[in-house]
Amino acid sequence: MAITSLDLDYVRQQFPGLDRGWTFFDNAGGSQVLRGVVDRIGEFLYGSNVQLGASYALSQLAAERVGAGAQAMATLINAASPDEVILGPSTSALLRMLAQCLGATLAAGDEIIVTNTDHEANLSPWRALTADGIVVKTWTLNPLSFELDLADLETLLTPRTRLVTLTHTSNVLGNLNPIRAIADRVHAQGALICVDGVAFAPHRRVDVQALDVDFYSFSLYKVYGPHIALLYGKRDQLLALPGYNHDFIAASTLPYKFQPGGPCYELSYSLVAITEYLQGLALHHGGPSIATDVDRLRRAFALIEAHEAQLADRLLTFLNSRPGVRVIGSSRVGGDQRVPTISFVVKGLSSDQIPPHLDRQRIGLRSGHFYAPRLIEALGLLPHQGVVRVSMVHYNTLEECDRLIDHLSPIL
To answer: In this predicted model, what pLDDT tens digit does every residue of 71-80 receive, in sequence order?
Structure first.
């Protein structure tokens, strides 16, 4: 019989870092790493730490392992091929690379639409293209609903629009943006869409084909893996872009033409452990009736979503009950509403005054603008020194949430 609630004992056994006596509520900055990821890194370094591309057996094994990591990520996000998955050091670096390559195909007067809700990783690289005559417009959020209104996008789209780039989920607000609806409208205009999924990917399954996005990027070190990131691109779009690697690398060589020096071998191989964990999570809860990789991933993220909704509801109920507290983002819980990244400000207190009270209790969270200073400024939160952010993931427990509430109560 399928288990309908998340087995937290099973989950937490997969994350050795949780045994250090700390409660981790800064997961949007970086999650704890899976035991299997570390095991795979060691397996590669001790068993196949050689250069790829040679004829001897160890080189062939190394290439197979690096390829297995790319295939695992293609499976995770439902890419049509691992050729559409570019691995690199960070989302910031990959989006800057994409902006440079895509920018080379644009002409002065072409337009790019960004938002004021994004992390700077998905803003600065595109704004830099104004030096080449590219026009960058800003889609601003509704400060009352904390949402991006589609009607406002309509006023920005023109025949010169070449790209709309935005976050799937703000790392401050936690709200979910309707990416497929936006993609449909952008494509109807003849433009491309690029999505920063960093704050989304730890909480929901990314399905790039269902979303019909042209580019999608997120960081694996926030999805229980090593400190690298991936950038997905539709094959036709990647083939059309100039490369970022050496000049002699053929334009058809995907994804290598965007990976100067190649991907980090051992970290690439370790990504296999992420999909293994998620599929194992589904099997542990659902048994052998879950037959395919896709079914297992869907089941795993359904369990994650349901548990995280309980965490978000517990904390939001508390915060909404405090008269001096203002939640920055949706106060509603639900699969189509938000992830459990919850930000707030407190009347009469600077946000940076709150985390030190929790440090002493070995509860890790933080305050600030979280690399989204334009959003913080737009919401008038600079005088508060930004927001306090509690970012939970599925290995957090209701007991940890209650402990946080107990220690926040005297402060708020």
So the answer is: 999 999 999 9
